[in-house]
Amino acid sequence: MDRDFFETPSAIAGDLHLAVTEPVGEMVRGVLDPTIGSGALLLPFQRHHPDVPLFGVDVDPNAIRLLGSSFPGLELDCFDFLHANSSNIPAEWKTFGVDAVVMNPPFSERGAATTSVRVSGQEISCARSLAFVLRATEYVVDDGVLVSVLPYSVQHAVKNRKALEYLHSTGQIEWLTSYPRRAFKGAVTQTRVLRWRRVADTVAGPSLDRPSAKSSQRILVRGWVPMHSRRNRRGPWRSLVHSTDLSSLVREPEIEMRRCRSVRYLAGPAVLLPRVGRLTSQSVAILLAGRTVCLSDCVIAIVTPSTDSARELASLIRSRLSCLNAEFEATGAPYITLERLNGWLDHQGFGDLFRKS
């Protein structure tokens, strides 16, 4: 497998850590390295931000296995990030995004060929290293930052003009430190650091706990904890609600749940529903005011202004189960999206519940 991989020296990893934290300060809520290799770029974040979720991707399963045993708490996935389809992308990235991306993509530019990547509905051809950057911008939240090592020539090559125009149109670009040839062992390419910050109100990326499109008073949240990796997470211990726990919450709203590490949390009051499968009266649960939990990626929360409005909304949903079940798309296992659920709530005229004090 030719990964075009050059390990990042610790001094350069420190430079990139500083380039990330300079603009966003200590308020880093999630860091992604989509070409993780040996994990060198995330080590400074592990040392200085021990409670921040760290995500890593590599196409090489051997690299992922080694990191899994030597880098506790790192959330790892093995797939081709550059050409990944939606089913490969972890739910947490798609739902919440990340505050920071730090990366050292393949940069030797062997053969100087271009690579095509689709972003925001556009097909853009550019250097392979820059294509990784474009792909990664899709998961950066408003005011988030991406820092990447790139070949020095990327900035001036005609083939990259459209890609650089896209980056300028979606954020702010800065060219930072440059490194000489052989700064990376085995690489003869001169390199430079790109820093890109997403500016709010440009091409949309994810936003944390984003409200629904149709009601500024209503917040719908899709869970972010994949059950298969719940034991490898970072952050404080919190109660975890999975779809199989909803019936227990219906019977006993203050029941103690299993626990999981998570930096992010949801605070009640809210109504909790399964995202996958058919709804029943025993799967529409209430999260009481004052209770904080983390949610599995099989659960959706509808945040309400008060516990009373949560109870009223849950009761109304239970009375219209057949109507809401019709919104669950039946392609394989039935499921519902935040957009479809939001549209259904609007159609049912439940807006007043979200304006109560």
TrEMBL record:
GO terms for molecular function: DNA binding; N-methyltransferase activity. Transmembrane segments: none annotated. Residues 8-194 form the DNA methylase adenine-specific domain. Pfam families: N6_Mtase. Keywords: Methyltransferase, Transferase. The keyword Methyltransferase applies. The keyword Methyltransferase applies. CDD domains: AdoMet_MTases. One of its GO terms (biological process) is methylation. This is Methyltransferase.
